[in-house]
Specification:
By secondary structure, the protein is an all-alpha fold. The chain contains eleven helices and no strands. Helix 4 runs antiparallel to helix 5, helix 5 packs across helix 10 and helix 9 packs antiparallel against helix 10. The radius of gyration is 16 Å and the shape is globular.
Length: 186
């Protein structure tokens, strides 16, 4: 997981504000996801659900940019952070985990996950993309949804999902899609 200071600062700022999810949003999510995926989505914190809905709504607005291809992208937007639900860390615990991974190196995460207490939770949190991918595999999600959960912090050259879909998802996750018009297909 990269440090991504600007992304992290925006996420921290939003973490300081109250979060909620409307019944209309949950109804929409329930229409996009399978029953098993919706169960996983509901295990996420309200703050993570709200973030994922914002990413999903941004994707929904810009989905035409993919020309009807990659219908899995909406599910990937809603479930990309689902692995965080496996590790209950509050805002400050997540900050500690991100900084610990950045300073000590993410290769420490598996060793930390073998420990106990906060060290274990930090080690597991740093592996949340892999945990999420495992959860989605068990929920029989589309293979690209599983892949995006695991790869969404990787550089584009390491993605197994189509580049144009990954770039759109990344832009939505970073909160940038709402700042630009929908691109038309060439």
């Amino acid at each position: 997981m990269k440090l991504q200071p600007l992304h992290r600062a925006r996420r921290f700022g939003s973490a300081m504000l109250p979060a909620s999810v409307s019944s209309d949003d949950l109804e929409w999510v329930g229409q996009v996801l399978s029953d098993a995926e919706f169960t996983l989505f509901r295990r996420m914190t309200i703050r993570d659900q709200a973030h994922s809905i914002a990413v999903g709504r941004a994707i929904d607005t810009h989905l035409t940019e993919l020309g009807g291809r990659h219908t899995w992208v909406r599910q990937a937007a809603l479930l990309h952070d689902v692995g965080k639900s496996a590790v209950r860390l509050g805002t400050y615990g997540r900050i500690m985990a991100t900084l610990a991974g950045w300073v000590a190196g993410e290769d420490m995460a598996p060793a930390w996950a073998e420990k106990s207490g906060l060290t274990r939770r930090i080690g597991l949190y740093l592996q949340y993309p892999k945990l999420g991918a495992d959860m989605l595999r068990l929920a029989e999600s589309h293979p690209s949804v599983v892949a995006w959960s695991e790869e969404h912090h990787d550089p584009p050259e390491r993605w197994s999902v189509p580049r144009e879909a990954g770039l759109l998802l990344q832009e939505a996750d970073d909160g940038l899609l709402g700042r630009r018009p929908v691109r038309t297909l060439r």
